[in-house]
Amino acid sequence: MPAGSEPRRAAYRSVWQPTVTAHHDRSPCKARPKLWHHVGLTDLPKRAPMSAPPSDPTAAPSANSSAGPLTHFDAQGQAHMVDVSAKAVTKRVAVVRGSIRMQPETLALVAAGTAKKGDVLGIARIAGIQGAKKTSDLIPLAHPIPITRAAVEFELDTALPGVHCTATVETLAQTGVEMEAFCACSTALLTIYDMLKAVDRGMVVADLRLAEKTGGKSGDWRAA
To answer: Which residues are known to be catalytic?
Structure first.
């Protein structure tokens, strides 16, 4: 054995042996807490408290909430078509507005009626009315409603520049026609895009919103 090796081995055992013994000894011992503290396990930061679970969409609103429960979910949170059989049949009206922005040269084609595909606004008006009639096919939980009137109007705006669209839908039914008016207005604006996209692919459909509704249990409502 080389000279000086035994003192080094003794020093090695004095430093490492307690740690190895505490690690392999499966019986309870008091050395383990010291070993864990040595590696820092007892100094780990406390876990942050869990955030509150998301609110139940079917739960009743809180006292400071102005919105009611989501009626398209049942007590189990499953989607369903709302039962409107107990509601009274009343006259209901909804008005939706939106716009499409375009280049001034594109708007000039609309005003002159010289677009390549023909009468842009005339075709968009028919498309909007058709869109109102197809609402229950497009919106899964919308009721098929007997529409008594659907009208689509346009206004050219050189300051925008572009076209403003107003869709009005009426019915005598047990539920409102807001979605029918939305489908009418959006379909009309998308048809304008389709008619003019060959000359202006940068057109922007924007500001689609409910302007007003009348009738029904919730009464009348108008945008500010």
So the answer is: 194
